[in-house]
Amino acid sequence: MDSRTLQLTEAFVQVTAMWRYPVKSMLGEPIMEGRVDAEGLRADRVVAVIDEESGLVATAKHPRLWRNLLKYSATMDVDTVVITSPAGWKLNAASPDVDGRLSAELGRAVRVATDRPDGATVERPDPEDVLAEGVDAAVPAATLEIGMGTPGTTFVDYAPLHLITSATLAEVGVEPLRYRPNLVLQTPDGTPPFVENQWLGRELRIGDEIVLRVSVPTPRCSVPTLEHGDLPRSPRAVRTVLVRNRVDVPGFGVLPCAGCYAEVEQGGTIHVGDEVTLH
């Protein structure tokens, strides 16, 4: 274990940004505080778009079909998920008009779902194939079950929370939101990039309440390379990781990774600015 990782138990580490994404693969919203329990961050990935033809959960991981989801945004208005379209309309996700409008704009029959069915799956092409062939190419796509690392029923990819450090982001040199993290952790100067690899199985304590357990590194798909709202494409967001940080992820194989997934051992409220300690 790198000696610099051990120093994080004493050095000042801080939550510097927090996001939730009420609809899977749509842009989310930055928040200053959020309630966390065993299922993750409250109101995160509580809604998804379902492809009526295949029954699969729509995700920008399959950019040929679903990259335009990243042009939409989703926010919370009290307890209501609100979807904003690039066409200009804004509707409650439960509105009877949403399915038809999304289907017309996305070019496929879809419906909005709030309950994740057992065995819910997504299609995920290899990001190297997408980089080589382009976002419109018909490349092979693996079918993966989502939410396997969480006790909840939200539409998270794997575990309840996704974290990434400032050290890793600085190494890649792209905007944090491309990786769609829940938490960005500011690490001390000199912290090595991809330090999250060395945290597996360890506890992160946030503020006075939260205890997380780091479970696996976060495998990267092609999503970080895609347009995100007004942000242009950025192939380097994955190319750098492909070269610098291929990791043997238990149960998944050797994959390009950035950040880590975490389980929630003790819940509570996280605030931007909270101190984080590694144990």
From TrEMBL:
InterPro entries on file: MoCF_Sase_C, MOCOS_middle, Pyrv_Knase-like_insert_dom_sf
Domain annotation MOSC: ranges: 137-279
Gene Ontology terms for molecular function: catalytic activity; molybdenum ion binding; pyridoxal phosphate binding
Gene3D superfamilies xrefs: PK beta-barrel domain-like
Pfam families xref list: MOSC, MOSC_N
Residue runs in coiled coils: none
Name of the featured protein: Molybdenum cofactor biosysynthesis protein
